[in-house]
Design goal:
Blueprint lengths: L2 E6 L6 H9 L16 E7 L2 H10 L3 E3 L1 E7 L16 H6 L4 E7 L14 H32 L3 H18 L11 H7 L10 E6 L12 H13 L3 E4 L1 H7 L4 H10 L6 H12 L2 E7 L3 E8 L4 H8 L1 H5 L1 E8 H7 L2 H6 L4 E3 L9 E7 L2
Parallel strand pairs: 1-4, 1-5, 3-9, 5-6, 6-7
Antiparallel strand pairs: 2-4, 8-9, 10-11, 10-12
Helix pairs in contact: 1-8, 4-5, 5-6
Length: about 375
């Protein structure tokens, strides 16, 4: 399982620069609108020190991190849902991702073009409006087909029509579908629509490179966080300029470089972590001489479900799993010593996997 995040925002807010840093890709990031004209996708490893430590402990030949797929989608403009700018072609790319990272500019730089003054709330409103209009258009097209079936007495079509009308009314009031309460039947009825505004969203705030020493001094940033609190949306501050510089700095020098800027972790790391939290994802670990690996699952998944991420046969034939918390394994020094100390547990089908569990599955094939 790989988390996929679509990077959206107005032109020239730092999307492509961020994407370049995330993937070390070579995407154009020029100072003019619509430089990105095709969605660029890159797979980014989520560097995890737990994987590094376990790989050293087990002398693993390979180590494999969890991954996040980032898609850089061209800058939207007012009227995109009606074909303005590069049109709603790019809105369709958003439908395929798990979550949305809305890049919002909060830094001031007269040398970088923008649509008028820097105004985060206005910029968010423009993007949200286009996403809402795109979903309303989808509903309008779907209703033409569904209404006929509903009038003929089709019970499923009637349920779908009720759900569509409920969504339509909510959108027409200027609200995203993430704020609409739907029951299980209603969610199932509209799931095939792949609505954009139902996707979990976080805000990536592109700040100035010196802002991290006192983010509260950036009035655009504080205005953005105030706005986000009202919508219950997570804000991840980053500097596209810093991230671009980091990819050219040796790994051993990055920590000191960030420390000098008043940052503990890179924006990339914080964005990946926020994405996992947004979608209620966690990782468990497997370790051995062949490889040490982080596996992505949903919070609340049982041991058989976690086993199925490795292979469907593991879930079907699941018997039990040896489980130990990462911290306890490291403290013991080896799996053998952890077993001697009784720190390794045998868990069954009902066990809820925790983030950082180190697991060895037993199964029938």
């Amino acid at each position: 399982m790989s988390l996929s995040i679509g990077i959206v925002g107005l032109p020239n807010v730092g999307k492509s620069t961020l994407f370049n840093a995330l993937t070390n890709a070579n995407v154009d990031a020029q100072n003019y609108p619509f430089c990105t004209i095709e969605p660029n996708t890159g797979i980014v490893p989520v560097v995890d020190e737990r994987v590094d430590t376990l790989a050293r402990m087990h002398d693993s030949k390979k180590k494999i991190y969890a991954t996040v797929s980032f898609t850089d989608i061209a800058g939207l403009v007012k009227g995109a849902s009606k074909g303005e700018g590069l049109g709603n072609k790019f809105l369709s790319h958003i439908r395929s991702v798990d979550a949305i990272a809305h890049v919002v500019r909060v830094f001031k730089d007269d040398n970088v073009t923008h649509i008028g003054t820097v105004d985060p709330a206005r910029d968010i409103g423009i993007i949200n409006t286009e996403l809402i209009l795109a979903d309303l258009e989808s509903i309008s097209l779907r209703k033409e087909k569904t209404v006929r079936a509903a009038k003929s007495g089709d019970k499923e079509a009637q349920k779908e029509m009720e759900a569509l009308l409920k969504c339509e009314a909510h959108l027409n009031d200027g609200n995203m579908l993430t704020t609409l309460a739907l029951d299980d039947d209603e969610r199932a009825a509209v799931a095939p629509m792949f609505f954009i505004t139902v996707k979990p969203t976080l805000i990536a705030a592109n700040v100035g490179e010196n802002d991290f020493k006192d983010l509260s001094a950036n009035t655009n940033y504080t205005a953005l966080t105030d706005h986000a609190k009202k919508e219950n949306i997570c804000v991840v501050p980053f500097s596209a300029k810093i991230e671009a510089e980091l990819k050219d700095i040796a790994a051993e020098e990055r920590t000191e470089y960030l420390k000098d800027l008043g940052i503990e972790r890179s924006g990339i790391e914080r964005l990946a972590v926020a994405g996992y939290e947004l979608l209620n994802l966690i990782t468990y670990l497997t370790a051995g001489e062949k490889e040490t690996r982080a596996w992505t699952i949903h919070k609340g998944d049982t041991a058989p479900k976690a086993a199925g991420v490795i292979h469907t046969d593991f879930e079907k034939g699941f018997i039990a799993a040896d489980v130990i918390e990462y911290e306890k394994l490291v403290a013991a020094g080896s799996l053998a010593k952890a077993k001697e100390a009784g720190a390794v547990r045998l868990e069954g089908k009902e066990y809820i996997v925790k983030d950082g569990d180190v697991m060895l599955f037993k199964f029938n094939v």
